[in-house]
């Protein structure tokens, strides 16, 4: 999906800002419409699959379940890994550079299209991970 989204974004890149906004909103509506056709408009509830979903403990008078601790821990680890990736890896630095000046990045010998594709793949992976972790809490709904 990340590669498909990158191709769509590449076609929108030279367009004026207003067309970029319209194209993005159109893509969102297309995805929602296809999901509504496939799965319907009713919320689909998914059983919790994380361990300790029904076990809880108190923190300062607040009831906390272990599944939420796992989700928060996963988010913190992901943030730390992304910070390190963008701060110290060659690809992470190239991703930061492609936003500022893709032509300058190309002059340095790094393909801006490849960097954008990696960014879309990483973004899609994190979106999928977020969806998998949050779905048992809120359910699946194509419209909301």
Please provide a written account of the structure.
This protein is mainly α. It is built from 6 helices and 2 strands, in the order ααββαααα. The chain has helices spanning 2-12, 17-39, 66-88, 90-100, 102-107, 112-138; strands at residues 56-59, 62-65. It has a two-stranded antiparallel ribbon. The radius of gyration is 19 Å and the shape is flat. The two termini are 21 Å apart. The model has no long low-confidence stretch (mean pLDDT 90).
**In one word, what is the shape?**
flat
Largest sheet: 2 strands, antiparallel
Strand % is 5-15%
Percent helix range = over 70%
- Provide the structure class: mainly alpha
Q: Secondary-structure element order, as H and E? A: HHEEHHHH
State the helix count: 6
Strand order of the largest sheet: 1-2
Short recap of the structure:
This protein has 144 residues and is mostly helical. It has helices spanning 2-12, 17-39, 66-88, 90-100, 102-107, 112-138; strands at 56-59, 62-65.
């Amino acid at each position: 999906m990340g590669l498909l989204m990158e191709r769509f974004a590449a076609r929108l890149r030279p367009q004026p800002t207003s067309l970029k906004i319209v194209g993005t909103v159109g893509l969102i509506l297309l995805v929602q419409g296809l999901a509504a056709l496939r799965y319907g408009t009713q919320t689909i509830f998914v059983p919790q699959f994380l361990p300790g979903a029904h076990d809880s403990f108190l923190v300062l008078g607040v009831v906390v379940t272990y599944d939420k601790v796992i989700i928060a821990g996963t988010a913190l680890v992901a943030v730390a890994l992304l910070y390190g990736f963008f701060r110290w890896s060659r690809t992470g630095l190239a991703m930061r550079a492609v936003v500022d000046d893709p032509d300058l990045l190309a002059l340095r010998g790094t393909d801006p299209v490849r960097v954008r594709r990696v960014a879309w793949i990483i973004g899609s992976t994190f979106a999928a991970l977020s969806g998998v972790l949050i779905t048992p809490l809120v359910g699946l709904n194509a419209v909301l």
